[in-house]
Write a structure and sequence with these properties.
heterotrimer, A mainly alpha (about 240), B alpha/beta (about 210), C mainly alpha (about 220), B: about 210 residues, alpha/beta, Rossmann fold, 5-stranded parallel β-sheet, 3-stranded antiparallel β-sheet, 5 helices, about 25% helix, about 25% strand, C: about 220 residues, mainly alpha, about 0% strand, elongated
């Protein structure tokens, strides 16, 4: 049995219906444990005080903002190559979720930036890149909404997603070139070098990241199921008009 | 050189309209397509012209042998009759602009801008384009819309001349062109049946 | 291909073709910004590179929806799609025609507007060079956006929303060239990056745009 069988809408609905409660439960556990631990059971930073605790929202949402786009790119490629409708609908379903994560990353960044840098907004390359990413999400969602025929919309948005990905990466480096910035480098992947994050923060942060990944999976599954139902409904209506 | 359509199925907006359409068109022959509105004539012709993919079946024709003419004539309002026609002749790399204008009775209008043509004159200009494509298979969607009786006869003569030179024509029309030699294909029997639970891979969307 | 280029140019220059609107818009931007910002030469000199590039970019944006929409409406695009010219070639030629009637004139008049905005002396050469290297990318990226939105009625606003984020790298490197040029600094790095984006866009986007048009025609 091949993996592609789950691209069958019926199979996908069956499987996702079974998986959904588990994913939902695990998401709730991870988020509650991670956030409570992070917010209330970690020490204040000696320099940043309690403001540092916003990383438990900021870092996971920023990671998922980018990962959601990557997931959309992969789903778009699968749609263009193998023409599986579920894949196109999953990409469509992921976009508003990705945009929301981007918005959370920007807002929490502003809340953190105010006490730390003394300003709500700085044209820092990382912030600017996220703002541009939000524009890409907006364009992608707007194109889905503007095109009536669902297959046409799926094709056009998939092409936009591919081209957009290239330009998003280009923008990221262009922005870096344009301004060196205030934002610290990402530290999360440097763990093991010389412990840039204290273990007291690190463990709850990882739990939070897992929670956000699960939340993303949960939301995308739910929204894809909705999209499939909507497609089925419009197909039934079209069939009824013909009959 | 032959146009062969084999068990073709075509769809519009995700709904299959026609299925199992099969016919062959030999040089010098014309085929008139008939059928009620919405049966899928335009969709079938666009599929044959390669503008949209077929759902199933096969169309075989020599490469770059088809030319398509539909409701929109592809005319530019600010260009003159001769410029409009000259553009399409240049795109297809053939000449004969003067001859095409003469045959569609456009010589008197050659320097007039397309914006100032009547609907029927525009139509004649749009059909004159067929003559400068140099392509043997004409795929025509309601070519006689807004033409008067004399122009219909003129156009029928042009089609007949094209057939006499070994050309082919596939015409969707409700009006009798006076092409008595043309075969007629009624599309109504090919109307796709609504299938419930076809069991296909993407069944949920069918 | 030549016939298509000549036709597009002819259409642009004849009445109602919209040639000159982009230039007029560019001029308006160069006039309105000092009115809004104030006449201080030092301030204007500082923002001139950015204003000129943003102005050129917006002027380019104005005429993008005409690239394919008119041909789509009157059926020409169907006929071009069935013609011997590959659709990728159609896109490339139309983007080139768009550049000839917008990007090139913008490049040529930009130094004059640079005077209005008090652009420092060494900046003029780099202003022209950066626009010459960057505006072809604006046209071809715009053609891609126009191809995506060709089937949508009143797609102009959506077109802007899709295209402007794609313009970001070109804008950043283009304005950077002028900024550095005006300050007498080394410009080769941003200029080469700008030219690289243009070359990449010219090479790849006609294929993406042609694919989008095929989807929109069916």
């Amino acid at each position: 049995m091949s993996l592609w069988e789950y691209a069958n809408p019926k199979k996908f609905m069956q499987l996702s219906a079974g998986v959904l409660p588990w994913v939902g439960g695990l998401t709730a556990v991870c988020l509650i444990v991670g956030l409570v631990w992070g917010f209330f059971l970690t020490p204040d930073d000696f320099r940043q005080g309690s403001t540092v605790k916003i990383i438990f929202l900021h870092v996971p949402s920023a990671m998922m903002a980018i990962n959601a786009w990557v997931m959309m790119l992969v789903a778009s490629l699968i749609w263009l190559i193998r023409r599986h409708h579920v894949s196109a609908l999953a990409a469509k379903a992921a976009a508003p979720v990705g945009l929301t994560f981007t918005a959370i990353a920007l807002v929490t960044g502003a809340l953190w930036g105010q006490p730390m840098w003394g300003t709500w907004w700085a044209w820092d390359p990382r912030l600017t890149a996220f703002l541009i990413l939000a524009l890409f999400y907006l364009g992608y969602i707007a194109l889905w909404q503007a095109v009536e025929d669902p297959d046409t919309a799926a094709d056009l948005t998939a092409v936009l997603c591919m081209v957009g990905s290239v330009f998003a990466v280009l923008s990221r480096y262009a922005v870096k070139f344009w301004n060196q910035g205030l934002h610290q480098d990402s530290t999360i992947l440097k763990v093991g070098e010389k412990d840039p994050i204290a273990p007291a923060f690190y463990v709850p942060l990882v739990v939070c990241i897992a929670g956000f990944v699960l939340l993303f999976v949960l939301l995308v599954l739910m929204r894809t199921r909705t999209e499939i139902r909507a497609r089925r409904l419009s197909a039934l209506l079209a069939r009824e008009r013909l009959a | 050189m032959e146009l062969v359509v084999d068990k073709l199925a075509v769809a519009r907006g995700g709904v299959t309209l026609l299925e199992g359409v099969s016919f062959a068109l030999a040089p010098g022959r014309a085929l008139i397509l008939r059928g009620p509105n919405g049966v899928g004539k335009t969709t079938l012709l666009r599929t044959l012209a390669g503008l949209q993919p077929a759902v199933a079946g096969r169309v075989s024709a020599p490469p770059e042998s088809l030319t398509y003419a539909a409701h929109a004539d592809g005319l530019k309002a600010v260009l003159t009759v001769e410029e409009n026609l000259g553009f399409w002749a240049a795109i297809h790399g053939v000449g004969g602009v003067g001859d095409a204008m003469a045959r569609m009775n456009l010589l008197d209008l050659r320097d007039r801008r397309a914006a100032n043509l009547s609907a029927g004159q525009k139509r004649r200009l749009g059909l004159a384009r067929l003559l400068v494509t140099g392509r043997p298979i004409w795929v025509l969607d309601e070519p006689t819309v807004s033409l008067d009786v004399a122009s219909v006869a003129l156009f029928a003569g042009v089609v007949r001349g094209h057939l006499a030179q070994g050309g082919m024509a596939l015409i969707a029309t409700h009006i009798d062109l006076g092409l008595d030699e043309a075969a007629v294909l009624d599309l109504a029997p090919f109307k796709a049946r609504v299938t419930v639970g076809s069991g296909g891979f993407d069944e949920a969307f069918a | 291909m030549r016939a298509l280029l000549l036709r597009d140019l002819r259409l642009a220059f004849r009445a109602g073709g919209g040639f000159g609107l982009g230039l007029a818009f560019f001029l308006l931007v160069a006039v309105l910004v000092p009115l809004g910002v104030g006449p201080e030469p030092a301030t204007l000199a500082k923002i001139a590179p950015g204003i000129l590039w943003v102005g050129a970019l917006l002027a380019c944006l104005l005429s993008l929806d005409r690239i394919f929409a008119l041909d789509f409406e009157d059926g020409s695009l169907d006929l071009l799609a069935t013609s011997p010219i590959p659709l990728e070639g159609v896109v490339a030629v139309k983007a080139f025609a768009h550049w000839l009637v917008t990007g090139l004139p913008l490049t040529l008049v930009a130094p004059v507007l640079g005077v209005l905005l008090n652009l420092p002396g060494p900046g003029y050469l780099w202003l022209v060079a950066s626009l010459a290297a960057g505006t072809p990318a604006l046209s071809v990226i715009g053609a891609f956006g126009a191809a995506l939105t060709v089937g949508i009625k009143r797609g102009g606003l959506l077109l802007s929303l899709l295209v402007l984020p794609l313009y970001v790298p070109t804008l950043i490197f283009g304005a950077e060239v002028v900024k550095r040029g005006a300050a007498g600094a080394e410009v080769s790095v941003p200029l080469l990056l700008l030219a690289g984006i243009t070359a990449g866009a010219l090479a790849l986007l006609p294929f993406a745009a042609a694919a989008a048009i095929r989807v929109n025609l069916r």
